[in-house]
Amino acid sequence: MPTEALIARLTDLLGPKGVVTDPALVEPHLVEWRGLYRGSASVVVKPATTEEVAAVVKLCAETRTPIVPQGGNTGLVGGAVAEAGTVILSLARMNRVRAIDKAAYTLTVEAGVVLADVQKAAEEADRLFPLSLAAEGSCQIGGNLSTNAGGTAVLRYGNSRDLVLGIEAVLPNGEIYNGLHGLRKDNTGYDLRHLLIGAEGTLGIITAAVLKLFPRPRDIATALVAVADPQGAIDTLALLRERSGDTVTMFELMSRFSIETVLRHVPGTSDPLETESAWYALIELSSPRAGGDLQNALEEGLGEAMENGWVVDAAIAQNDTQRAAFRRIREEISDAQKHEGGSIKHDVSVPLASVPVFLARADAAIEKLIPGTRPCSFGHAGDGNLHYNLSQPVGADREAFLQQWEAANRVVHDIVQELGGSFSAEHGIGKLKVHELEHYKSPAALEAMRQIKRALDPYTIMNPGKVIAL
Question: Cα–Cα distance between 77 and 434 in angstroms, integer?
């Protein structure tokens, strides 16, 4: 537990409102979204400037006090869990939009800006920031970058890593790295930006970033379709990319079970299709060119997919209300699944052509391991990322099912590895997957990671126990 002397020094640096020790106010920072972990730290610091972050980190380096950076605390792998003796560093007060350059299509924001507010700032400038995920109303951009978040538009715009031109960060020794240049070309040595993005706060604390913006969509077409099988979905995606001039922005694959969980547990949702199928796809096309008639392109493409037997039914949104209803079905799956009992999660990616093979092999292997398990498969199939979640068998004991977590992970991740995929597609490593990283990553890669960690953080104060085991 941080000493009274340390707390007094932190208070001198940040003022009374920058240091939280009241257990009731610390409590929200200890709860992990999935409920797999619970933190036990007793102090939260809330710096308001990069200089204050640097001062806190310098003090913690001096006293060898571990720091756990925390954004919106919406992570899914225990990356923001803070054990006793650590100081939680919340970026919530660093929530300013620093600058926007409409001509250069850039937006400079601090790490504590909520993702939805980043999107809003871009929209107010008649621009688009395309990163979008279910937690966008509470997650913060610093956390998004620290975990290299993906979301629903990766197919068109890329991961968080692809949406950043420059960052500002505080390194483990308390020095400030200022890379907020916004340049699109800079070949001056190692790119520290990409080293810090996706490092989950283990190599430093991202405090601000220059983000890429894009023209706002003026023409949008959205459909929810029933597909014959996962292969039909992949074939339909390829056809639509070609027929629409590669304007597919979103292509989300959903199993019937995943949709049924939403229909059962989320009020106000309804099945948009009369035909019931084992698999569905949420598809969206968008273009900054008004009057491009994407609706017609989508209709013609889906018509051709039906003739080929890939699509068996389709509903095309006729207005924004219907579009929102289609999207909501996809967005509510994670929360709705909680009502089906215990759930074992997998966030995996495989080569696009291997998606059908993975689903067939994984379903068969899990049924053999835990008979009656209900796969709740959904995700960003357009980029090969699937959330292969497993709901407990009907009537099963929840705790007994969850005790199979590691065994199920091994079965699923082995299949992913054989197919040339990744056991962590967009959620990161955090605390949950440290052993998986050791198991699947090559010795050369692991040793390089350890050397980087030791070089930048010799006292291992930055988010200890996360990502890489030393």
Answer: 10
Distance CA 252, CA 379 (A): 5
The kind and range of the H/E element at 374 are strand 374-380
Residue 160 DSSP symbol: G
Query: HSE on the CB side for 299, CA within 13 Å?
Result: 7
Taking 3-state DSSP, the helix, strand and coil percentages for the chain, each rounded to the nearest 5, stand at: 40, 20, 40
Q: Residues 62-95, buried b or exposed e (16+ Cβ, 10 A)?
A: eeebbbbbbbbbbbbbbbbbbeeebbbbbbbbbb
Q: Please identify, in words, the CATH class of the domain defined by 4-90.
A: alpha beta
Ordered strands of the 67-70 beta sheet: 19-20, 43-45, 87-90, 67-70
Token duo for residue 413: 């991740």
Q: Any idea what DSSP says for residue 350?
A: -
Tokens 């803070």 sit at which residue?
Answer: 82
pTM of the model: 0.93
pLDDT in tens, 209-262: 999 999 999 999 999 999 999 999 999 999 999 999 999 999 999 999 999 999
In angstroms, the first-to-last Cα distance of the chain is 23
Distance (Å, whole) CA 123 – CA 112: 19
Cα(362)–Cα(389) distance, integer angstroms: 11
Architecture of the domain spanning 341-426 = 2-Layer Sandwich (3.30)
Query: Which part of the chain is CATH 3.30.43.10?
Result: 4-90
CB atoms within 10 A of CB 215: 12
CATH architecture of 219-327: 2-Layer Sandwich (3.30)
Position 33 scores a pLDDT of 80
Residues of the chain with CATH 3.30.465.10: 97-215
Q: Are 409 and 370 in contact (CB under 8 A)?
A: no
Does domain 97-215 correspond to CATH entry 3.20.20.80?
no
Q: Which helix (H) or strand (E) is 435 found in, with range? A: helix 434-440
| Residue whose C-alpha is closest to residue 341's, from 378, 407, 387, 395 | 395
